[in-house]
Amino acid sequence: MFAEDLSIFFSLETPGAVQAVVGGVSTVALFDDAYQASLDGIADASAPGAYVQTDAVPAVAQGSTVVVGARTLTVTAVEPDGHGVTFLRLRG
Predict the structure, then answer these.
(1) With contact defined as beta carbons under 8 Å apart, do 24 and 57 qualify?
(2) Closest alpha carbon to 1 in 55, 60, 59
(3) Is there a domain that residue 3 lies in?
(4) Tell me, what DSSP letter sits at residue 11?
(5) Which of 75, 83, 85, 87 can pair with 79 through a Cys bridge, CB separation 3.0 to 4.6 Å?
(6) pTM score, two decimals?
(7) Is the pLDDT at 36 greater than 80, yes or no?
(8) Cβ contact 20:36 at 8 Å
(9) Binning pLDDT at 50, 70 and 90, where does residue 1 land?
(10) Range(s) of the domain holding residue 71
(11) Structural domain contains residue 75
Protein backbone atom coordinates (compact mmCIF):
# COMPACT_ATOMS: atom_id res chain seq x y z
CA MET A 1 0.00 0.00 0.00
CA PHE A 2 1.25 3.47 -0.86
CA ALA A 3 1.63 5.75 2.18
CA GLU A 4 2.08 9.48 1.68
CA ASP A 5 3.48 11.74 4.38
CA LEU A 6 0.69 14.29 4.82
CA SER A 7 2.32 16.16 7.71
CA ILE A 8 3.48 18.94 5.37
CA PHE A 9 -0.18 19.78 4.68
CA PHE A 10 -1.32 19.43 8.29
CA SER A 11 1.07 21.92 9.83
CA LEU A 12 0.09 25.04 11.76
CA GLU A 13 2.09 26.95 9.14
CA THR A 14 -0.39 25.91 6.44
CA PRO A 15 -3.00 28.57 5.62
CA GLY A 16 -6.31 27.62 7.21
CA ALA A 17 -4.69 25.19 9.63
CA VAL A 18 -5.78 25.32 13.26
CA GLN A 19 -5.22 23.34 16.41
CA ALA A 20 -8.44 21.42 17.03
CA VAL A 21 -9.79 18.78 19.37
CA VAL A 22 -11.63 16.19 17.29
CA GLY A 23 -13.55 13.57 19.22
CA GLY A 24 -11.31 14.21 22.22
CA VAL A 25 -8.06 13.99 20.22
CA SER A 26 -5.87 17.07 19.73
CA THR A 27 -4.78 17.42 16.10
CA VAL A 28 -4.19 19.94 13.33
CA ALA A 29 -7.16 20.49 11.04
CA LEU A 30 -7.69 22.54 7.91
CA PHE A 31 -10.81 24.44 9.00
CA ASP A 32 -13.18 26.41 6.82
CA ASP A 33 -16.38 28.22 7.78
CA ALA A 34 -17.52 29.24 4.34
CA TYR A 35 -20.63 31.26 3.60
CA GLN A 36 -23.37 29.26 1.92
CA ALA A 37 -26.38 30.80 0.19
CA SER A 38 -29.44 28.74 -0.66
CA LEU A 39 -32.94 29.17 -2.02
CA ASP A 40 -31.72 31.73 -4.57
CA GLY A 41 -30.32 33.96 -1.83
CA ILE A 42 -33.42 33.88 0.40
CA ALA A 43 -31.61 31.97 3.14
CA ASP A 44 -27.97 31.90 4.08
CA ALA A 45 -25.79 30.22 6.64
CA SER A 46 -22.26 29.15 7.32
CA ALA A 47 -21.08 25.74 6.20
CA PRO A 48 -18.24 24.78 8.55
CA GLY A 49 -16.03 21.86 7.71
CA ALA A 50 -12.59 20.51 8.47
CA TYR A 51 -10.06 18.27 6.76
CA VAL A 52 -8.10 16.00 9.11
CA GLN A 53 -5.60 13.19 8.71
CA THR A 54 -7.64 10.00 8.89
CA ASP A 55 -5.07 8.20 11.05
CA ALA A 56 -5.01 11.07 13.57
CA VAL A 57 -8.69 10.66 14.49
CA PRO A 58 -9.66 7.03 13.75
CA ALA A 59 -12.67 7.01 16.10
CA VAL A 60 -14.34 10.20 14.82
CA ALA A 61 -17.98 9.57 13.92
CA GLN A 62 -21.19 11.42 13.27
CA GLY A 63 -22.12 13.17 16.53
CA SER A 64 -18.50 13.64 17.66
CA THR A 65 -17.50 17.12 18.73
CA VAL A 66 -14.84 19.35 17.19
CA VAL A 67 -13.46 22.23 19.25
CA VAL A 68 -11.78 25.04 17.33
CA GLY A 69 -10.80 27.99 19.50
CA ALA A 70 -13.86 28.87 21.58
CA ARG A 71 -16.29 27.10 19.21
CA THR A 72 -17.67 23.63 19.75
CA LEU A 73 -19.14 22.05 16.62
CA THR A 74 -20.82 18.72 15.97
CA VAL A 75 -19.79 16.32 13.20
CA THR A 76 -22.73 15.73 10.86
CA ALA A 77 -20.86 13.64 8.28
CA VAL A 78 -17.52 11.84 8.05
CA GLU A 79 -16.17 11.61 4.50
CA PRO A 80 -12.84 9.74 4.15
CA ASP A 81 -11.22 10.12 0.73
CA GLY A 82 -9.45 6.76 0.85
CA HIS A 83 -6.04 8.44 0.63
CA GLY A 84 -5.47 9.43 4.26
CA VAL A 85 -7.61 12.57 4.51
CA THR A 86 -11.12 12.82 5.94
CA PHE A 87 -13.52 15.72 5.48
CA LEU A 88 -15.77 16.43 8.45
CA ARG A 89 -19.02 18.30 7.81
CA LEU A 90 -19.81 20.33 10.91
CA ARG A 91 -22.73 22.10 12.51
CA GLY A 92 -22.25 24.84 15.03
Answers:
(1) no
(2) 55
(3) no
(4) S
(5) 87
(6) 0.85
(7) no
(8) no
(9) very low
(10) 17-91
(11) yes
Q: Please check whether residue 90 is in contact with residue 74, taking contact to mean a CB–CB distance below 8 angstroms.
A: yes
Residue 39 or 67, more confident: 67
SS (H, E, C) 44-82: EEEEEEEEEEHHHCCCCCCCCEEEECCEEEEEEEEEECC
Nearest to 92 by CA among 52, 48, 62: 48
Write the CATH number for 83: 2.40.10
Is 2 among the domain residues? Answer: no
8 belongs to a structural domain: no
Q: How confident is the model at residue 3 (pLDDT cuts 50, 70, 90)?
A: low
Q: What is the mean pLDDT of residues 60-76?
A: 97
Distance in angstroms (rounded) separating the CA atoms of residues 27 and 56: 7
The four Cα atoms 89, 81, 58, 87 give a dihedral, to 10 degrees, of: -20
